[in-house]
Amino acid sequence: MSREIGKVLGTADAQPLDFWIAVPAEEPLQLDDVVLVRRALADGQMVTLYGIVDILVARHEGARLESDVFLATDGVLPLTHAVKAHVTVTRVEPEIFVPPMPGEPVFKAAGEDRDKALFFDVMTKRFPLGLSRDGEPVHGNFEFLDGSRGAHVNISGISGVATKTTYATFLLYGIFHSKLLGAAAGNTHALIFNVKGEDLLFLDKPNNSLKADQEALYAKLGLQPGAFEDLAIYAPVRRETLEMVPDTGARTEGVTPFAWTVKQFCEERLLRFLFTEAEDDSSQLGSVVERVESRLAHEDVRGLDGFDDLVACIQRHLDDWAGSYASGTRSAFERRLLSAAARVGHLIRGHVDDAERNVINWRKAQVTVIDIHNLHDRAKRFVIGVVLKRMFEDKEKSGTSRPLAFVVLDELNKYAPREGWSPIKDVILDMAERGRSLGLILIGAEQTASQIERRVVANSSFRVVGRLDLAEAQQHEYAFLPGPSRARAGILKPGTVIVSQPEIPIPLLVQFPFPSWATRESEARAAVTAAGKDPFRKFRS
User: What percent of the chain has pLDDT over 90?
Assistant: First the structure.
């Protein structure tokens, strides 16, 4: 039940969209608390203004000089403490925009009142975003994520502290393990690129470090703590062997190695994804790549035994295939091709016994993790570009936006930078702009949103901010954050983020529980492989 926590202040202007309240000094009101105030109109209507506390100020009332604080402390001056709070209005019911009157009681919203203040009462489909500072659930409107009214999530924050990937996986866990998807849950998929460490290779193992108090937080969100039950893991083949062995460290059990054959590389026109550095739009290099790619698609490559043979084939025919371009452009193409061969060549093989098994299948399990953290940046770009291209084409061929498919990609600033053009940037931008209609949802993350292609960020219905560098927080991309929120972004702790969504006019501070799935081998309840029985041990020497 809502309880009184103060009164509308009479010494500051109260407006229909924001006002100040006087708070008793002993009242434990804090930032982010949800409040309400009512005003009776002359015609008998009652208007309720709901809002969120975003500024709190305490001072000595009656003090004139800074040094008066010492006199008050010593009991010489009879000064009293005064606390006031600023409230930003989130909702007015009915929509009659009048200011609250000074002296009106202000209540801390609870239950149905809190749901109305935050629009939870009108969210017919909602998913857990986390918990408020006072431990109450915070929901997101799924209609702004599933493509019905919007799509995509963008997460910003400095590396290591903002826990961007952890929050992305928490969102997926809440979507998959609540009752939100119903019968469609079994056909809904998520594809996660593991770009740093091996944190995401144990999502199917329960976390043995989870404490009882954290388990209780999952219960508050209507979730049963646990692991991702239906998981497929892919890792690149090892460079130093011709055998199809996954290049992983702590985990080898249940990991499928991936590679492409030369035939697949040529027929699917994947050459462009070897040239993934951002180019100036006026560069002719892209045209050369397209020309060579087109010729390779019709070339008989059955006799080529690996990527080195393919490179040699391209070099032999380059003057014929791209002779109309300047020699400098052809030389630039050849240099980059040779450089790519050194970084990516082991992923493209002349023959694979079961080629289809070793092609990444994002429909194989509910959640698919592609481990690329051991690859060179150029190889990472190649894998991401190729996989997303195929996924996009699969969704286009299906002709329907259902079932949904989520893509989690960190380090967006590398793959969709603000300046220049590249094939992978094209794919990501296409996903951001057209993915909504295909049921393809991007959960992207980066350290600095100011370095991302603007249209990728602008098409994200949900904007999430972890701890930010304070200089970065002043960039235009964070204009959705009020001044106090920008300042708080510089001191956020791991497990705390600020979330903006379309229906709520002010971003909300959200805390999310510790992962109930293992994020490293030591957190897994069962050992991945028994000591001395690692089938891939010989490749680690």
Answer: 76
